[in-house]
Design a protein that fits this description.
- The structure is a single chain.
- It is built from nine helices and eleven strands.
- It has one domain: Zn peptidases (Aminopeptidase).
- The longest helix is centred in the first third of the chain and has 34 residues.
- By secondary structure, the chain is an alpha/beta fold.
- The N terminus is likely disordered.
- The strands form two sheets. Strands 1, 2, 3, 4, 7, 8, 9, 10 and 11 form a nine-stranded mixed beta sheet that branches. It has a two-stranded antiparallel sheet with strand order 5-6.
- It binds zinc ion (ZN).
Length: 325
């Protein structure tokens, strides 16, 4: 009796496994077929970059009038594209040294009744360092690569996923503030979401993607590469080597130096940053020269398009395949 029962059980689970893996394969191959055709419009990438880095925004320092303009701009794009706020408004507010900081959060709800309770957070910080010591009378740190570039990527991804709505899991598109003041916006939000018992699957954070890497066989690198199987799975989903390992990122402990770390600390789930800044390809880090005209819009557009299949598949696999090591 026991043996037979076990045999049946094995047959049953083997059968289930086959079905699952066929369905998973369909999800993955349909993502390659359909999503591979996704196109991001380079002129909207450029337009958003130009707005976020304009002198009018005065370097987007948290609490300033300049960053308020950036916040309103992002909210308007979310609204125009019918992306719902996650809370009652798009804003998640927090105090920072007597000023107010605002994270901006749009949501694209999942389509599966069960899986929609699980969330992906696609994030980038949109604040920068404001005014610094002038060089040739320019004192505005416009923060094009750091991190208008990542913010534009999150905007474009939000627009893309809200118009396709084929994600089984829910997705939050998050624009974080006060990163430059010590990851304060993300610390606030990660704690709030944790307190609200959000079921976070993965945080995919985007930083400094305005210039291509040089001499690499991958388009960007992942911080905390060895912390999880995210890069490996992402490349498998993409059918292409998108994400690689950068020794310098490990040496400088970039895993703990951007907002992904706040989500990692609260949730202990895969939370990592993708970037193409390799310490040799851009000389304007926290510099008044970090301007929009130094961004490679066609590279950015290609990278945003390239990460769509991987994000799509993360939002659709039947199980949580991305795990901490
Ligand atoms: Zn910075």
């Amino acid at each position: 009796m026991k043996t037979a029962g076990l045999g049946l059980l094995f047959m049953f689970s083997a059968c289930n496994l086959t079905q699952n893996s066929t369905e998973e394969k369909e999800i993955i191959s349909s993502s390659k077929a359909k999503i591979a055709k996704a196109t991001i419009n380079p002129s909207s990438v450029k337009e958003e970059l130009d707005f976020l880095t304009s002198n009018d925004l005065m370097g987007r320092n948290t609490g300033s009038e300049g960053i308020e303009k950036a916040a309103v701009y992002i909210e308007n794009i979310l609204r125009k594209n019918n992306i719902k706020p996650h809370y009652t408004t798009y804003r998640d507010s927090f105090e920072v040294k007597g000023a107010s900081g605002y994270n901006i959060i749009g949501m694209v709800e999942g389509t599966d009744p069960e899986l929609k309770k699980e969330f992906l957070i696609i994030s980038a910080h949109y604040d920068h360092i404001g005014l610094i010591s002038p060089i040739a009378k320019d004192s505005i740190a416009n923060g094009a690569n750091d991190n208008a570039a990542g913010s534009v990527a999150v905007l474009e991804l939000a627009k893309h996923f809200s118009s396709t709505t084929r994600n089984k899991r829910s997705m939050l598109f998050v624009f974080l503030s006060a990163e430059e003041k010590g990851l304060l916006g993300s610390k606030h939000l990660a704690k709030r979401l944790k307190d609200e018992k959000l079921d976070l699957y993965v945080n995919f954070n985007i930083e400094m993607i305005g210039v291509p890497m040089v001499g690499k066989d991958h388009k960007a690198y992942l911080t905390g590469f060895e912390e999880s199987n995210l890069a490996q799975k992402f490349n498998e989903y993409s059918n292409e080597k998108i994400l690689g390992f950068l020794p310098k990122a490990k040496e400088f402990d970039l895993f703990r130096r951007s907002d992904n770390y706040s989500f990692y600390q609260e949730f202990k789930v895969p939370s990592q940053t993708i970037s193409s800044f390799d310490f040799t390809n851009y000389n304007y880090y926290h510099h008044v020269g970090d301007e929009a005209d130094k961004m490679d819009v066609s590279f950015m557009t290609d990278l945003i398009e390239s990460i769509i299949p991987g994000i799509y598949t993360m939002a659709n696999t039947l199980t949580k395949e991305i795990k901490l090591n």
